[in-house]
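Hey L., structure's done. Input below.
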Amino acid sequence: MTDIRLQRLANVLVDYACDVKPGMWVGILGDVVTLPALRAVYAEVLKYGGNPSLFISDEAMTRHFAREASDDQIAWLDPSMSLYYEKADIYIRIGSSNNTRAMTNVDPKRVQKIAAARKSWLDTRLTRSANLDFEWVGTWFPTEASAQEANLSFEEYENFIYGSMFLDHEDPAGEWRKLSAVQQLKVDWLKGKKHVKLQGPNADIELSIEGRTFINSDGHKNMPSGEIFTGPVEDSVQGWIRFDYPSIVAGRAVSGIELKFEDGKVVEAKAETNDDLLQAQLNTDAGARYLGEFAIGTNFGINKFTGNILFDEKIGGTVHMAIGMGYPETGSHNRSAVHWDMICDMRNDSTIHVEGELFYKNGQFVV
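Output:
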């Protein structure tokens, strides 16, 4: 018997997040482990009159490619995928994994080479999205492996995942609209502001948001969501920050990341674990040493760290910053094959001042 929450998820993705209309070309992407969710979304797309294209991947094949593909094979771009990114209307990705450490022993430089080769797909998706030509949303399907990563039983993890998306409510979309209204008040207040300064045990850093746009992330791009974010002026970031939550990329957890910025650029970087991966990411290309995103998490339904950035970056009372690619709709000009989010807890003895006015204290907005 299908879990009613999975049916609600499909409806939220297709109707609320992407507003699928008859005749739209809708891509549905996910690993074979997400098949129950892919089926639910596929059925919902048909119900709303969309034309679904199913793109199923397999993490074992993905891992084999990362280890064995030649440089020519890495550089080759599947023309069917290129056509999809250039012409389709909707992108719905269901993420998950049967083994969260599957890529641990894969050379991170090869992982970055693959990402760099496929950067044009990311550029196309983000540019078309900024031009309102391409709707997209990503979400997560619970598995035993992810539950174990979160130190939860599978049932507890399911409840956490679906609760963070309001799928335990009869009208999840209505709950997202309420959160959207609250976040919009903050976005409106920030319009026209220029200077932001973060201070606390984990940060002494400032940046400019002059001419940049804050986005109200309310479930139309990520599900779950719950954040407001922008792209800081590229050469404006000055100071130091420590990200006290681990950041996981390519199946490897990088802990205790500290970055020092001068004129926007990361000039010093270290990590307590897997420092080689941090350095590899920073050295991917020129844009990887600049911030593409600054964001404040607002989803207090996400109240624990689970090792999954889709959820962790939304934790109420935290901020996160991403090195690398910025979102064009924010006004960011930073381009990179990397977009790597790192999370900083602001719930203890921490403040954010905007134009010298206290905006945020100890994990709560004060305006």
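The chain has twelve helices and 20 strands. The longest helix spans residues 172-190.

-- N.
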